[in-house]
Amino acid sequence: MTLTEDPTSADPDWETPLSLSLTPAMLIHALMQSASAVHTGWTSCIDDSLVLANLVAMDDHAGHYVRLAEQEFIEDSQPEMPWHDWTLEIRIGSVLTTAHWQCPANAHPSEWDWNAREAARAFERAAVLVGRRTRPALAVEEPTPLEIVPRASRH
C-alpha cells in the first residue's frame, strides 16, 4: 500500500474525485426557493433567439454546466405585455433543473433588481457544483424611455 492509498498516513490528494447524490428536488430547495417557477426537463426551455445575456459555468470533464440567461418574450395570451425572464439552468448528466425569475418588462426597477439579484445569487451558489467561483461585475445600462403617467391632482 502506498502513502496515497492509506487514509491514516496522508491527507487525500486535492484531485481525489468526490461524489454526492443530488436530486432536482434538492437543487430546487437549496438554490431556487425564490423563483417564480421551477421545472425539470431533458431539453432546455431557453429560446436562444430571445436571449439578451448569457453566462455559463462548465465542468471541465463531465459536461455538466450551470447557465444564467436573460430573455424577453411575449405570451400568446397577452401580446401587448412583454416579460423579462432570468433563467437558471443546471445540467447534471442528462437532467436539466430550471428556475425562472420573471416580471413584466415595464415593472418597477426595484422588481427588476430583486429578480436579477435572486437569479444571480442562485447562479453564484450553483457554480460551485461545477467547481467555479463567480464575482460581481459592473454593467452600464442604457436609459429606457418611460411612459408618461398622468398625475392625479386635486382642484
In short:
This protein has two helices and five strands.
Secondary structure layout plus pairing:
Blueprint: H1 24-31, E1 37-41, E2 51-58, E3 65-74, E4 82-92, E5 95-104, H2 109-126
How would you characterize this protein structure?
There is one protein chain. Strand 3 (65-74) and strand 4 form a beta hairpin. This protein is of the alpha+beta class and 155 residues long. The longest helix has 18 residues, at 109-126. It has helices at 24-31, 109-126; strands spanning 37-41, 51-58, 65-74, 82-92, 95-104. It has a domain at 45-130.
The biggest beta sheet reads:
5 strands, antiparallel
Distance between the termini: 92 Å
Looking at the structure, what is the overall shape? elongated
The count of DSSP E runs of length 2 or more, i.e. the number of strands, is 5
Taking all residues together, what is the mean pLDDT?
88
Topology pattern, helix = H, strand = E: HEEEEEH
Which percent range fits the helix content?
Answer: 10-25%
Give the low-pLDDT segments: none
Category by helix and strand content? alpha+beta
How much of the polypeptide forms β-strand, as a percent range? 25-35%
Rg on CA atoms, Å? 21 Å
Helical stretch tally = 2
Q: Strands of the biggest beta sheet: in what spatial order?
A: 1-5-4-3-2
